[in-house]
Amino acid sequence: MVTHSMENILNMQYYAVTNHDEAPHSPPRKRRCLNKEQDPMSHRIIEKRRRDRMNNCLADLSRLIPAEYLKKGRGRVEKTEIIEMAIRHMKYLQGSRQDTKPPAAAAVHHPEDSVDSVSHSPSGSPAAEHYRLGFQECLSETMHFLVEVEGFFARDSLCVQLISHLQQHCEKILATSWFSSLFFINS
């Protein structure tokens, strides 16, 4: 009897070492169970790293979204809202690239660029550049008010039409001889 059970034990060890498909017993399953015991931990680590990476990317994305798209006073912004705002802004950028707007249009959505857009004023005079800078600052503040206080989105038709109208008005004022003569007299 001892020999028979010893033979079974040796057979089981033999099957565990050789091809798993040939084994009629469960040692290969035990071996797989050991892997499953290790897998949940490595799977958890992999999933945690993936979630951390996703959260870091969302945090970076939320910092890149212009303030016009964020509604203040709401507290924490949901992850899906961050993605939606990023998509909305990317569509706006694609739309503004297709439109042939003057470079000053970018200053409304990117206040840090407003100085660059001013320095390329057609008249070239410092007074015109200062006027354009003040006008762009006013446009930015108007957009800020509409988005933050009134609850509009920057891409709402009212905001787009108002900003477009005011930018065209600014260009018209800067192009008139009245404006340039006014500042040359005072300079």
From TrEMBL:
Its main location: nucleus. Residues 116-126 have a biased composition (Low complexity). Residues 131-166 form the Orange domain. SUPFAM superfamilies: HLH, helix-loop-helix DNA-binding domain, Orange domain-like. InterPro entries: bHLH_dom (IPR011598), HES_HEY (IPR050370), HLH_DNA-bd_sf (IPR036638), Orange_dom (IPR003650). Residues 38-93 form the BHLH domain. One of its GO terms (biological process) is regulation of DNA-templated transcription. Keywords: DNA-binding, Nucleus, Transcription, Transcription regulation. One of its GO terms (cellular component) is nucleus. This is Hey protein.
